[in-house]
Amino acid sequence: MEKSASLSRRAFGKWVAVVGGGTAAGVGGVHLLDCAGEAAKGQWLALTDEEIRILEAVAEQIIPTDRDPGAKEARVVVYIDRQLAPGAAYAHLADRYREWLAALDSAAKRSGKPFAELPWGEQTRLLREAESDRIPKEVWNVKTPQSFFRTVVDHVKQGFYGTPAHGGNFNYVSYRMLGVIVPTCTGRNRVS
After folding, report:
1. What is the CA radius of gyration of the chain?
2. Burial class (CB in 10 A: 0-12, 13-18, 19+), 117
3. Are 174 and 160 in contact (CB under 8 A)?
4. Were 71 and a residue from 4, 63, 158, 166 both cysteine, which residue would form a disulfide, CB within 3.0 to 4.6 Å?
5. Under a CB-based contact definition with an 8 Å cutoff, are residues 59 and 40 in contact?
6. Strands (E), 51-169
7. Which residue, among 129, 140, 136, 114, has the nearest Cα to 56 in the 3D structure?
8. What's phi and psi for 156, nearest 5 deg?
9. More confident residue, 20 or 125
10. DSSP labels, 32-55
11. What three-state secondary structure class fits 169?
12. What value, to the nearest 5°, has the Cα angle with vertex 141 and ends 135 and 142?
């Protein structure tokens, strides 16, 4: 196998599941490979680096950093990317995310810059237009509605306020901001 030296860690894992897993992987390993599809290029599971840049700017608009950490410090994009990965909770929304982010960036470029490079006020204006479906249809000529922004807002909140086990709320930043006691041990307070 000539390309084995250039395999990503994810591709190598798929290869091991199919080839190196022997009878344990069997047909199930091949099925896993078929279902997983292509991984995003780079460190992300579902989105590209460029899509992450746009999403991070959007998330920072939703929960900005001020005297307290915002979406960026909470690593909300890690949460969303994990949830969009093949087999994850929001995998069925991955294509809609890609389409919405590309359309938002395209709308931003009418001003001459990609969304992530627009000044704060311009980003805010553009997101307000998207939320209320006011971006002209010739600019927003995709199936995913502009109002998909509401779904993005929900996911940003989940990534900010949820448990770090899912990729967001890094180092419990939102819990600390709210004065919530950070759990020292999980799984012991189960109701029988």
Report:
1. 19
2. middle
3. yes
4. 63
5. no
6. none
7. 114
8. -65, -45
9. 125
10. HHHHH-PPPSSS-SSS-HHHHHHH
11. coil
12. 110
CB count in 10 Å sphere of residue 48: 14
What is the tens place of the pLDDT at every residue in 67-112?
Answer: 888 889 889 999 999 999 999 999 999 999 999 999 999 999 998 9
CB 79 within 8 A of CB 162: yes
Mean pLDDT of all residues in the chain?
77
Show the tokens assigned to 95: 């294509």
As a whole number of angstroms, the distance between CA 21 and CA 10 comes to 15
Query: What is the amino acid identity at position 61?
Result: Q
Q: Which amino acid is at 190?
A: R
Token pair for 8 = 């990503």
Share of the chain above pLDDT 90, in %: 45
Distance of CA 74 to the CA centre of its chain: 13
Report the distance separating Cα 167 and Cα 159, nearest Å: 7
